[in-house]
Amino acid sequence: MPPLPNRWTKHRMRTRISLPLAGLLIGWPLALSAQPGRMDALASLERGEWELRERQDGTATKRVCLGDPGQLLQPNHSGLQCKRFILENSAQQIAISYDCGRSGQGRTTLRVETSRLVQIDSQGVSGGSPFALTIEGRRVGACRSTALAR
């Protein structure tokens, strides 16, 4: 006949059950905040034509017709449908990590200076190679075409 559990054994069993349960209860709101949703920093950005200039050399520029400001969050994976996880979300700054499957992944921080000026830092892996970008985005006017990028 096995020995009956003493008070110490019962306490350890309760601890083994209650600690993971407490972790779930505490971690649940944090997990929800990392889900896709409203990105406060992007809400203030003006739609239109934006010039994206790499700050490292200052010469590489790209123009985009910005309809969805979320496209600024994946500068090296633009146009791909990637899973995004919000790491920080305020009116002035957003930080995300994203996973584009075999195409790569990255982490981007976008800081809003004004509704027409942003600073973007992004690093990750694209096509099997690492990248690190520091970009200044500036609204330069209305889009030249009638269709906004989505």
Would you kindly provide a written description of the structure presented here, covering whatever features stand out?
The protein is α+β, with helices and mostly antiparallel strands. It folds into two domains: 33 residues; 102 residues, Staphostatins (Beta Barrel). The protein contains two helices and seven strands; from the N terminus they run ααβββββββ. It has a seven-stranded antiparallel beta sheet with strand order 2-1-7-6-5-4-3.
Number of strands: 7
CATH architecture of the largest domain: Beta Barrel
Number of domains: 2
| CATH class category name of the largest domain | Mainly Beta
Distance between the termini: 70 Å
Q: Which strand order spans the largest sheet, edge to edge or round the barrel?
A: 2-1-7-6-5-4-3
Task: Evaluate the radius of gyration.
Answer: 22 Å
